[in-house]
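Researcher: Next sequence.
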Amino acid sequence: MKKVFKILVIVIIIGSLGFVGFYVFDKSEDTAEIFETDSTFVTDIQRKTVATGSINPRKEVEIKSQVSGVVNKLFVEAGDKIEAGQLIAKIQIIPNVVALNNAQARLKEATINFKNSEQEMERQKKLFVEKVISQVNYNQFLLTYNLNKQQVDAAENNLDLIKEGASKKSGAVSNLVRSTVAGMVLDVPVKEGNFVIESNTFNDGTTIASVADMKELVFEGNVDEAEVGKLKEGMDLELVVGALDTIKFQAKLEYISPKGVEEEGAIQFEVRASVELRADHFLRAGYSANADIVLDEKKGVLAIKESNLIFEDDKIYVELQKADQEFEKTEIETGLSDGINIEVLKGLTEESWVKTL
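Model: Next structure:
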């Protein structure tokens, strides 16, 4: 009985091992790895670099006041189109006490001199009529009278300009701010009631408005030092403006800075390109943009995906398909790459398939 039991146990163990072996073998057959393949293809390949920057007017002018005072009235706002000479603002002058006192003193002095010369001229005129003095002597007193009269007018005009910013007699006006150029008002950084400082040798003055010609825009950006040596003036750029999503603009490179600037540990070179405007989209000053600059381009070349390459000992290989799921490592020669696709110069044909890596 014990012998039969032992035989039964042995049979069960052998059967179990056989079942496990068959199950493992069957699973290994089911999970055999199937490799995917990619074919070669003909395409156009461009090698690009990207410059980041913004869209700005080529010429932007800051309009400033000739006098210090308070903004009494603004006649424009951002977005307005204006002509050269158009009125922008009126300034209410707050006179400088010292300058006002000096102007008043000069007027008093000029008035006294004029009255004295007037009295003397009248006396000399009588003598001239009575032929006591000559024409020459009389003319000298008449000249003095006219000069003193002119001094009074000048002193009055000067006092009016200091007090009001305008003189009715001379027609001079200094408290009216006018645009020096035609274009679009980009910004009016002051408000009515704000105090402004005049522009002079020692002070830049307060900007009343910024005006620019929005028909002439440029892209201003930066390029890394690793790519700047490949750039040349006259290259075409394709601008992608962030605010306009997929809308693209064409531009032409016109300036490459001769000096780099370090930014966050990298040397950047400024570039500038003239932008070709489009009638269907308005570009605003300050838009951020990326510029694609084509460094090299080839059309209609044989290519494969660069991710399928194998790099070993300064050589380039692919797993070339010889039969179904049979591959052979083959050396190839490559050319231009855009980071995704790469040109194949030797080693493959249009009928070639390679293992997907």
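Model: The CA atoms of residues 217 and 339 lie 31 Å apart. DSSP finds four helices and 22 strands in the chain.
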